[in-house]
Amino acid sequence: MENCVNLADLRRAAIRRAHPIVFDYIDGGADDEHTLARNATAFADYELMFRVLVGVESVDPGTRILGQQTTLPYIASPAAGNRLFHTEGELAVARASAEAGIIYCLSTLASASIEAVAEVSKGPKWFQLYVWKDRALVKEMLDRARAAGYQALILTVDFPIAGNRERDLKNQLFIPPKIRPRHVWDALKRPGWTVDYLFSPPIRYANLSQDSPAISLADFVAAQLNAAFDWHDVEWLLGEWNGPSVIKGIVRTDDARRAVATGFNGIMVSNHGGRQLDFSPAPIDVLGSIIDEVGAAAEVILDGGVRRGTDVLKALALGARAVSAARPYLYGLAAAGYPGVRRALDLVDRSIRRDMALLGVRSVAEIDSSFVRRTPRQA
Amino acid sequence: MENCVNLADLRRAAIRRAHPIVFDYIDGGADDEHTLARNATAFADYELMFRVLVGVESVDPGTRILGQQTTLPYIASPAAGNRLFHTEGELAVARASAEAGIIYCLSTLASASIEAVAEVSKGPKWFQLYVWKDRALVKEMLDRARAAGYQALILTVDFPIAGNRERDLKNQLFIPPKIRPRHVWDALKRPGWTVDYLFSPPIRYANLSQDSPAISLADFVAAQLNAAFDWHDVEWLLGEWNGPSVIKGIVRTDDARRAVATGFNGIMVSNHGGRQLDFSPAPIDVLGSIIDEVGAAAEVILDGGVRRGTDVLKALALGARAVSAARPYLYGLAAAGYPGVRRALDLVDRSIRRDMALLGVRSVAEIDSSFVRRTPRQA
Amino acid sequence: MENCVNLADLRRAAIRRAHPIVFDYIDGGADDEHTLARNATAFADYELMFRVLVGVESVDPGTRILGQQTTLPYIASPAAGNRLFHTEGELAVARASAEAGIIYCLSTLASASIEAVAEVSKGPKWFQLYVWKDRALVKEMLDRARAAGYQALILTVDFPIAGNRERDLKNQLFIPPKIRPRHVWDALKRPGWTVDYLFSPPIRYANLSQDSPAISLADFVAAQLNAAFDWHDVEWLLGEWNGPSVIKGIVRTDDARRAVATGFNGIMVSNHGGRQLDFSPAPIDVLGSIIDEVGAAAEVILDGGVRRGTDVLKALALGARAVSAARPYLYGLAAAGYPGVRRALDLVDRSIRRDMALLGVRSVAEIDSSFVRRTPRQA
Amino acid sequence: MENCVNLADLRRAAIRRAHPIVFDYIDGGADDEHTLARNATAFADYELMFRVLVGVESVDPGTRILGQQTTLPYIASPAAGNRLFHTEGELAVARASAEAGIIYCLSTLASASIEAVAEVSKGPKWFQLYVWKDRALVKEMLDRARAAGYQALILTVDFPIAGNRERDLKNQLFIPPKIRPRHVWDALKRPGWTVDYLFSPPIRYANLSQDSPAISLADFVAAQLNAAFDWHDVEWLLGEWNGPSVIKGIVRTDDARRAVATGFNGIMVSNHGGRQLDFSPAPIDVLGSIIDEVGAAAEVILDGGVRRGTDVLKALALGARAVSAARPYLYGLAAAGYPGVRRALDLVDRSIRRDMALLGVRSVAEIDSSFVRRTPRQA
Fold first, then answer.
1. Which residue of A has its CA nearest to D131?
2. Which of A36, A72, A38, A89 lies closest to A351 in space, CA to CA?
3. A304 at the B interface (CB within 8 A)?
4. Quick one: pLDDT band at residue C175, thresholds 50, 70, 90?
5. What does each of the 379 residues of chain B score in pLDDT, given as a tens digit?
6. What does the CA dihedral C330, C336, C338, C340 come to, rounded to 10 degrees?
7. In sequence order, what are the beta bridge partners of C248?
8. Whether C57 contacts chain B with CB within 8 A
9. Which of C129, C126, C120 is nearest to C90 (CA)?
10. Distances (CA, A) of A40 to A155, C315, D163, D296
11. How many CB atoms lie within 10 A of CB B30?
């Protein structure tokens, strides 16, 4: 892990260790992956106007997010079925996040239970929810999350149906995965992942009462999620939860406004990491307009494409309260389990601190819009 | 065909099955193919602003085009000599289009007759016309199309002479094709196409009384079409037809205005798939100005570069009534005949429905300009 | 030559036949060749808004340039030492230009004499002048050009000293060339060019009284040209010539205005084909501002980057009277001598006529600014 | 060296001669090297509007910088530890700079002493300072620099901590370098550099009293520099120096204004060659705004990305007094020692003179904003 000096190195390490159908599931996006690519490359359209001679002998990247103090303006985004990537799964991520002092978001579709995660993590935790058909199941999950000490609810709204992830289609990825004859050769070349996978308990959606059948994500979603879910259902849900809440998957100002009116405390600007509707705008490209619209009434979090400390600082300079990301820790997890996640979060922490000093700010409160501008490129 | 999960896969399948000179005829464009490329890539300059929590459990992409109800806002564009690509030719395309519930446009230069197509298709059908020198021939075709139940006439106006298609020039493509010594090796490597081609009746322009000589398209056009054709001839033609009519090949607002004044009900914004004048503008780039000009008086259809459901939705968000495309079904036809066309149209149907749900719309009527914006890219 | 269907094919044929140091001399530009590349690629920033149904059965690309009727709005630009590229040299180009009905510009540094060219060409001819140190030599050349029937003078003003052509530097190109040991292998691989070169009379600047020493172009220019030449010298020169005159190498509006005030009838917008100051603007990118400034008082000609009929039509739509180009015929000359030049000019002629028909214009007088617009590209 | 006709050639020569870990230290930048690349490529966004017929038989690129007459508007930027690249180190660069008539800037972290450099160079010299923890050391250095005849002080302010130079991290570069087992093979392939390195006195920071331990630059900087240094410390420093002064590493107009108010005579617009905060703006892209802000009160110098004479002229046309660069001479030094530096500076000198003549200016005073414009590129 010490040889991995940035997240791109961790990604390459994940390619070497994890089965390709698993790596593709982390790495891929919808259709032609325009949005997937744009999420990250859009950051290059923004420059950082560093300030000098302010005295940066001590830099503090700490902030408050929905009232909770965190070490970094950085959240570990929810991601489904982490045991697919490494047998240590969500437990490794939750533990490392708590140690790093950042908020960990547990997915409804996690392969570790609400309670098991709470046991390994005393840090700040949020619980992510998809819009299930079964309201009783939803209420049960909310109760469990509350009981286990999760402080906020994240509702993912950009997933009414599954996106068209062609890598997974071509890989014939089922969850839990079925190793088909065409996958054997790749499995043999990744003995570490394969042995772990074969000798571990079967991967399942740990928070669902029923057993998970091995089917494609699209089929599972069509069967379990509620595409009819709308703003009225949200009102019911927020009433049930009655606590801090974040809506995830907003790119339009009218949706942001309505989310605030409906009672959300946080807006996560996101396109699901480019995995749903291709040609969705990059979060960094709509962040400003969302903040103009609801920045006074809600905390805005950018989710998508963040890889470097400079990306974090650009989002903050444009007005975000924090950023959120899953792929960085997933690359670490797939590469090496818990130590890989630690390495990922450590690189994030170090790059944010270093880049704050180089930008000329001692605290996130000092970062305003004067520190960012559009790259004036024409040629 | 099940392995083809998008149109790019079908295109690759067509490369493998069809003789290169035939594939190039489908695939190529004029001069340096700037417009050919731009037609498709221009869509990347537009982003989709998806909406959330509207309840998309049922999505209906149906619409009315020139008064006809269709399953999709998607038309099968006219294309010449389909038997070149697969022995099943236009009949396969017409049949699959009818089954998909979309409008099929039969080319004047089809290799199947007006009547034969009508026999296999009870779905909506339009008849496409080039501007022939021989007015009697035109009247005869109009009468036959009317008699056979074609509901609208499409007049192609961006083809006064043939464009400079250098792939065809270098391939020495004649229609019907002559297999020259230099083509034999490629023919041997595509036994499926070659056997079909050798054991089928000769390809001919089925709606022309005279026999088609084997000459280049440019020479045929120069001999048969009327480069002198102008708006006065159009008035005569519309008088003869006296029914719903669409003009195909418009990029200028003044031409669109005149077309409406002359009596056309529909405007097909098109540059002939990049096969005529290179550096013609991409249809998506002029669509807005045409709709501003004549959108209240005529239905505007975008033809050119459409490959994904997202492309369709962008055109609709910019105000188009529908899109039109030929290459997608031609790739399917060249790859596998009727099942290939079915696959192509099925992929189109599924992607439009999925992308509507992800965009947050339940019907095409809901799609307005708030769902699209220019990609804010500089770097 | 029949296999060459465009100028890029002719260029490739030139690579195959001519010695690399000679090909590089035609093909190369200054410094990093930014301007060389931009001259051609800038045309892609302009789109053609074709018009339909105007009746294009007969298209006439003829025009008048400085009072002379020509078949095409296209001029053969001056180029030095054509015998370097093919033993037939300027005589082949002049003859083919006359046959094509276009204006031929003979360079001061031609390897054929003013009189020899006049003998093979009864077509329109202009004489190009560099700013020599020796005024007597200049007067003598003007007298000879007038006597031989050259109708206009072109003064090249973007060449006070030689540009930094690094290909020639690295090739150690002298004029006439010296075949050094390192060039022998390439010479052996191009026997056609090499035999011609060895068995032809030595290449010399045919219009200079003194013998040409074999030195680099930069050294020759430093010795012979007058870097001190300024607008006062121009007044003297125009007084001596007392006939139609064109200034070549203008990109600024203030220079264009002064040129008109000084008495020039034509302004050739040019950066010497990207061979002088790198990062000079592409002619197409400054054409509009120059025409706005002096279009009413002088004829403006675009020189640089023209390869396709569409390029010609874009320049005309932006207000140019004609375009001018040397590389197209030089590629033809280097590829095959006179037949190569014929092919180049034939391709130019055919592409202009075809593209006019596709654009929907019957004469160059019909081409106005409505036919061109900037490509609206962002992504 | 004669085969090197531009700085890119010298860079390639440096690759061939110097050990890769040394070459990477010269060549590399921070993070993903966006800013490193952009510093140079941003120049392509600016075009040069050359002027004609002004008489350029004699061109003088001389200018005054902070009151000192120099041969060129070009400064040799400070760079640490030059003996790493070639055993002749700073002495070679200082000597060649003096011979070229340009200002040489000696780094605090030089591997040659203030006095040794003064001995070999009677030309204009500036002394660069980092912000050391030890004020006594700073005072001592200022006294030595003054005594040795350095005319101005440059304070580098964009280096509160070390940037994230991943090439150096991966190379495990220490200063002085430790040849680890993994470096031996590359050392054997560069015998010239290796023999020099092994048989020379150890590389040390010659102006520091203590011995330099072999540690990474980041660790050294953290131990020795004062990240708390701020504008108040600067006031103390300028009081101690009491002479001409330049601040290096400014990209913001507010910092430029404050620098002038604090007493600096010169502003060096710089991002430390892309080695500190990635996504800092390219100097050429912020130059105009800085000059608008403080151009009347201070001399503005552009540092970063300059490789061609055209780059220099663009900066001057935008209002810079001069440019500054280190990599060009470092490539020369690494390639061949003193003759390499000579070659680099000779190429710079020749290209500035040639490009002034081609631009149509006889002195730097003639270069105004009419000579530059943004490249109007869209496609």
1. A53
2. A72
3. no
4. confident
5. 889 999 999 999 999 999 999 999 999 999 999 999 999 999 999 999 999 999 999 999 999 999 999 999 999 999 999 999 999 999 999 999 999 999 999 999 999 999 999 999 999 999 999 988 889 999 999 999 999 999 999 999 999 999 999 999 999 998 878 878 888 899 999 999 999 988 898 888 888 866 667 788 888 888 888 989 999 999 999 999 999 999 999 999 999 999 999 999 999 999 999 999 999 999 999 999 999 999 999 999 999 999 999 999 999 999 999 999 999 999 999 999 999 999 999 999 999 999 999 999 999 999 999 999 999 875 5
6. -60
7. C156, C268
8. yes
9. C120
10. 23, 39, 22, 41
11. 29
CA distance C46 to chain D (A): 8
- Decide if C325 contacts C303 (C-beta within 8 A): yes
Distance CA B116, CA A286 (A): 53
Using CA atoms in the order B146, B151, B156, B162, what is the torsion angle rounded to 10 degrees? -60
At a CB cut-off of 8 Å and minimum separation 6, what does C214 contact? C174, C175, C176, C177, C178
Q: Is B272 one of the catalytic residues?
A: yes
CA distance C26 to C6: 17
Q: Give the pair of three-digit tokens for residue B236.
A: 């005569």
C chain contacts of residue B272, beta-carbon cutoff 8 Å:
none
Q: In Å, how far are B299, C250, D223 from D205, measured between CA atoms? A: 77, 54, 14
Measure B121 CA to nearest chain A CA, in Å: 32
> Distance (Å) from the C-alpha of residue D42 to the closest C-alpha of chain A?
7
Identify whether B78 is preceded by a cis peptide bond (ω within 30 of 0): no
Which chain B residue lies closest to A276 (C-alpha atoms)?
B358
Q: C279 CB near a chain D CB, below 8 Å? A: yes
Dist CA C35 CA C282 (whole Å): 7
Across chain A, what does the average pLDDT equal?
Answer: 95
Contacts of D57 in chain C (CB under 8 A): 226-228
Whether the link from the prior residue into A176 is cis, omega within 30° of 0, is yes
Token duo for residue C5: 């269907």
What fold characterizes domain B7-374? TIM Barrel (3.20.20)
C interface test, pick of D52, D314, D318, D371 with most C CB neighbours within 10 Å: D52
Contact predicate B90/B108, CB 8 Å: no
| Core vs surface per residue A144-172: b (16+ CB within 10 A) or e | bbbebebbbbbbbbbbbbbbbbbbbeebe
Question: How many CB atoms within 10 Å of residue C210?
Answer: 10
To the nearest 10 degrees (0 to 180), the angle between helices D309-317 and D283-294 is 30
Which chains are within 8 Å of D by 3+ CB pairs? A, C
B350: its two tokens:
């599924």
- Tokens 């060249």, located at residue: B334
Q: Which amino acid is at A33?
A: E
Tell me phi and psi for residue D31, to 5 degrees.
45, -120
Minimal CA–CA distance to A48: which of A295, A317, A261, A239? Answer: A317
Nearest to D221 by CA among C73, A354, A305: A354
Size of interface A-B (CB pairs under 8 A): 105
Name residue, tokens 């209906």: B60
Parallel, antiparallel or unpaired: strands D322-325 and A125-129 = unpaired
Domain boundary assignment for chain D: 7-374
